[in-house]
Amino acid sequence: MTISNEELNWMYETMYKIRYYEDKMVEAYAEGKNPVFNIGAGTVPGEMHLATGQEPAAAGISIHLKKDDIVSSPHRPHHHAIAKGVNLNKMTAEIFGKETGLGKGKGGHMHLFDPEVHFSCGGIVGAGIPHAVGAALAAKKKNKDSVAVAFIGEGAANQGAFHESLNLAALWNLPFIIVVENNKYGISVPKSHSTSIPSNDLRASAYGVKGYYVKDNDPIAMYEVSGEAVERARNGEGPSIIEIETYRYLGHFQGDAEVYRDENEVTELREKDPIKLLREKLISDYNIEESEITAMESRAIKDVDHAYAFARESDYPKPEAALEDLFD
């Protein structure tokens, strides 16, 4: 599958937007939490899981998805939401706990739902996989060509929901794709200490589905295998597992002491920054002008800055609104 310059540009701008969004969230989340870290304090209270370094997984498959395709995301959802086209203003307001958010500020960052683009967060550790399989079943019964995608971390592949869902998806030949983002750690446990196989695409044969593996966090390779998986699903050829070797530049959550990681690990991983490498490839291999790339970056920055301004300027929900919603 050959990628076009237009698709490359979309992927680069989307990945850049995700990275800038997460960088801004690092700053916003830190407000009011120091000098002694307090998870419940500050502008954005609660736990926060960021996807800095994992952008190719989201952009590489989302470019093949339509508005009516379904995406289920886990507790690290911002990159998936942005790539799927979730309203950025409402998403940011939701994370800030504001009335203008996707769920009127009641769900927060781990419970983002946008029915306009068929996006949802299933919560923690594989909880969204059965939801996506249910959506795939509904699409098949309604004779739609929609595809359902569930994103998970590699740790969730050891949960019962992973195996039960894949069994049913294969048995019913559903248009279902599971994307395993292997960022090497389940919270603080290295994958090698929790999983008996080197990669979860190898589990595909146990269920009679197609398996793909993407090395080195490569966005173009992710584009290629995702395109094949989505096409197979739309054509009635059944489910697929895609595992992508990706990098988590930040801790499991903001405030994570990361004592389980070697201090040089993140430095080495950042040398393989997928956004930097893709930018270089756009220029060297695809003859895309640097001025065009700069324009993409400027658009991304503008969109993200506007979303954060919208969230900050929005009002918090009134206490009585919670009761009013119960009787609407």
TrEMBL record:
One of its GO terms (molecular function) is pyruvate dehydrogenase (acetyl-transferring) activity. Pfam families: E1_dh (PF00676). Its cofactor is thiamine diphosphate. InterPro entries: DH_E1 (IPR001017), PDH_E1_Alpha_Subunit (IPR050642), THDP-binding (IPR029061). Residues 46-320 form the Dehydrogenase E1 component domain. The keyword Calcium does not apply. One of its GO terms (biological process) is pyruvate decarboxylation to acetyl-CoA. Keywords: Oxidoreductase, Thiamine pyrophosphate. The keyword Amino-acid biosynthesis does not apply. This is Thiamine pyrophosphate-dependent dehydrogenase E1 component subunit alpha. It comes from Oceanobacillus halophilus.
